[in-house]
Structure formats: C-alpha cells, structure tokens
Design goal:
Layout: H1 6-15, H2 20-30, H3 43-50, H4 54-62, E1 70-76, E2 87-93, H5 95-107, H6 127-132, H7 154-163, H8 168-178
Antiparallel strand pairs: 1-2
Helix pairs in contact: 1-2, 7-8
Length: 188
C-alpha cells in the first residue's frame, strides 16, 4: 500500500460530487491517524482496502454471523502431565476474516514498535537473538499461560486502535474484527 495523500482523494471526491465540507472532514479525520498507518474512514472503506465484502464485515462486527466467521474446535494436548483439561480450544477465522486480519496486521499493527522485551511475532528479531538474551542465566522458566488470548478483552483492543488515531467507530470495528467473543466459545 502506498502512502496516503489527500490530493487524489479530494480530486476523486470532487469529481463524484461529494460536498466540500464532507471531503474536508474526511481529510481531517485521515490526518489524525498516527505511525504511518493507513486512514480508514468507514467500514465500507475497509472493505475496499482489504477486498473483503462489506456485508461479511458488517455481519462479523454485528456478531450476527453465528458460526460463519470462526471455525471453533478442540485439539487434544500432548504431554499435559496431571492437568485436568487435556484439550486446547482453537478459534480459526474463516478465509475472509483471516484476509482482513492479515491486512490489519500488515498495514497497521506491524508499523508499531513492540515493547523492547518482546520478541514473539516480531520479524525484526530472530529466534537466535531472543535465545542469546538468556545465555549465562542460572535459571530459565518455561510456562504456558492458560487462556492467554481470552484474557485480552475487546475494550483493550479498542483502546489500542484509538491510540493510533482511529475514530471511535472505526476503532470499535477494527477491535471487533480482531477479537473473538469468549462467550461464544463452546462450554469447556
């Protein structure tokens, strides 16, 4: 995606007969987005940017999709020791949702500098670099956080997108597209 510029946007809007005040407001909104992230003005705009149909995005955000957006299933855990819960729940997004989530990751989330202690899911650092941090340590503790992804609530995701300069409605829509509603998960 190339850098966003207001001139082509204004020219196209004027040719389409969009009122000047609406165009100016849209440009003002777009300029509030930080970190080189692309402006997203509406859900329909996001649909055009990602190539994912607007009706699907709307159903997903409205949570009227039932089982359309995610395939939820459980996998048996290996080497679980004495744990009672021997299954891990998987919430795999459907093709269209995966496409929009990857677009959000590539064009928005990957532009943000991660915390200095974070090495996971970061293409700027390799596994060897991450392991070197622990060389010479007396102890290494390995743990698996139970229900880690479920512990990240939708309001925190919303606040993240707001911190990037997205308008409240767009931040809400982005959060809904990136967050699986735990209440919708089958009973364990």
């Amino acid at each position: 995606m190339s850098r966003w510029s207001s001139q082509p946007y204004l020219k196209t809007g004027q040719q389409a007969g969009v009122p000047q005040r609406i165009l100016k407001n849209a440009v003002k909104t777009a300029k509030q987005v930080k970190h080189g992230c692309p402006p997203i003005l509406t859900l329909n705009h996001l649909a055009q940017l990602t190539g994912v149909p607007y009706p699907f995005l709307h159903r997903t955000i409205s949570r009227t999709y039932e089982t359309e957006a995610y395939n939820v299933f459980k996998l048996r855990k290996q080497n679980v020791g004495h744990q009672v819960d021997r299954y891990r729940w998987i919430c795999a997004p459907c093709e269209d949702l995966l496409k929009v989530q990857r677009w959000i990751n590539t064009h928005i989330l990957s532009k943000i500098e991660p915390h200095e202690a974070s090495n996971a899911y970061d293409n700027r650092h390799g596994v060897l670099e991450a392991a070197e941090l622990h060389c010479g340590a007396d102890w290494l503790i390995k743990l698996d956080l139970t229900n880690f992804f479920e512990s990240i609530l939708e309001p925190r995701v919303f606040e993240l997108f707001r911190s990037f300069g997205y308008q409240p409605l767009v931040a809400f829509e982005l959060a809904r597209l990136c967050h699986y509603r735990v209440a919708a998960m089958p009973h364990r």
